[in-house]
């Protein structure tokens, strides 16, 4: 059957269902002549009579019955699917896909995901943790989470954390054995744990020198590509770690780590959710942002930062 006949099939089904042209026209909101025209067009193209007509009734022929039995379920299924799409347009359900750079999940995402699943039981959330920068459109993601300085200018953003510092820290056992560095130059004489980037290079520590930011090569005996492993080694006294301060909050508060050269720490812009502008009205994404806003408000004793705060995009990131 030619595709140009497909729009006329619902008319055939309505006539069969209602047993007449006038009743079908009323159901479809069409004129009786338009209904008759559609039926006649399909019959002419098929070369087969679909209805037996009398002055009192309209009934299906064997050919018409075959068409209704064959095409009817497909047309009805399509109608049902379209209705479900319309009803789901404003609902928070289905799959929300996020790409989250390591190690940001625990810093900003976990409490939001927990609250989302409580609020929206029909929602599924997929988190893809990737050290590399990800094209969220090509990757089929709804949104991503990165440091503000790593986000393309054409993306919409929502702040997930206040600005925070990247610091150096070491275990008391390391400090007892090796002492504390007194300057940035002194770091060359210490075991500074190195991080291998996805590109294969070793990440230089970005530190404040007093006159501006400088890059200091890490020169320790340990090289990792996962910050959580570096933290384990640091707690064992194997070297100085360079990491986002919120990730070390418990260890610093408990004394299992001690900050090193605090005057050399650098300020990061904080973590942001980013997404294409065309998906800004996606119900799942809007629900995530609304939930994140309420979670931030509860967690911050001083009030959450402005969600639309500007982003300083000048700083590079270790994710490249």
Automatic annotation (TrEMBL):
For this protein, the record's InterPro entries field holds: LysR-type_TF_proteobact-type, LysR_HTH_N, LysR_subst-bd, WH-like_DNA-bd_sf, WH_DNA-bd_sf
GO-annotated biological processes: DNA-templated transcription
Pfam families given in the database record: HTH_1, LysR_substrate
Q: Which domain of life is it from?
A: Bacteria
Q: What is this protein called?
A: LysR substrate-binding domain-containing protein
Checking PANTHER family in the record gives: HTH-TYPE TRANSCRIPTIONAL REGULATOR, HTH-TYPE TRANSCRIPTIONAL REGULATOR PGRR
Q: Can you name the source organism? A: Nisaea acidiphila
List all Polar residues biased stretches. Answer: 309-320
Q: Does the keyword tRNA-binding apply?
A: no
Where is the HTH lysR-type domain positioned along the sequence? 4-61
Which PROSITE patterns does its entry note?
HTH_LYSR
Renumbered residue ranges of the record's region Disordered: 298-320
Q: Name one GO molecular function term.
A: DNA-binding transcription factor activity
Concerning its family, UniProt says: Belongs to the LysR transcriptional regulatory family.
* Keywords attached to this entry: DNA-binding, Transcription, Transcription regulation
């Amino acid at each position: 059957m030619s595709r140009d006949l497909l729009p006329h099939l619902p008319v055939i089904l309505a006539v069969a269902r209602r047993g007449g042209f006038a009743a079908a026209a009323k159901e479809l909101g069409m004129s009786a002549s338009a209904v008759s025209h559609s039926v006649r067009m399909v019959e002419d193209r098929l070369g087969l009579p679909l209805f037996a007509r009398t002055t009192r009734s309209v009934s299906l022929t064997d050919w018409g019955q075959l068409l209704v039995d064959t095409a009817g379920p497909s047309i009805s299924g399509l109608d049902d699917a379209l209705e479900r799409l319309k009803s789901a347009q404003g609902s928070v359900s289905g799959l929300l896909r996020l790409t989250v750079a390591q190690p940001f999940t625990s810093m900003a995402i976990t409490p939001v995901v927990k609250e989302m699943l409580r609020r929206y039981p029909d929602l599924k959330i997929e988190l893809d943790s990737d050290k590399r920068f990800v094209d969220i459109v090509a990757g089929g993601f709804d949104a991503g989470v990165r440091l503000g300085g790593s986000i393309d200018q054409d993306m919409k953003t929502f702040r997930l954390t206040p600005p925070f510092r990247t610091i150096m820290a070491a275990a008391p056992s390391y400090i007892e054995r090796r002492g504390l560095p007194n300057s940035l130059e002194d770091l060359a004489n210490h075991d500074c744990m190195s991080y291998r980037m996805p590109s294969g290079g070793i990440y230089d520590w970005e530190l404040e020198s007093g006159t501006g930011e400088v890059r200091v090569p890490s020169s320790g005996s340990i090289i990792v590509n996962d910050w959580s492993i570096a933290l384990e080694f640091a707690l064992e006294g194997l070297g100085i770690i360079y990491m986002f301060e919120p990730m070390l909050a418990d260890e610093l508060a408990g004394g299992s780590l001690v900050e090193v050269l605090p005057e050399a720490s650098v300020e990061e812009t904080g973590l942001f959710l980013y997404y294409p502008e065309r998906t800004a009205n996606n119900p799942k994404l809007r629900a995530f942002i609304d939930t994140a806003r309420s979670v931030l408000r509860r967690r911050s004793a001083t009030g959450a930062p402005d969600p639309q705060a500007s982003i300083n995009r000048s700083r590079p990131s270790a994710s490249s």
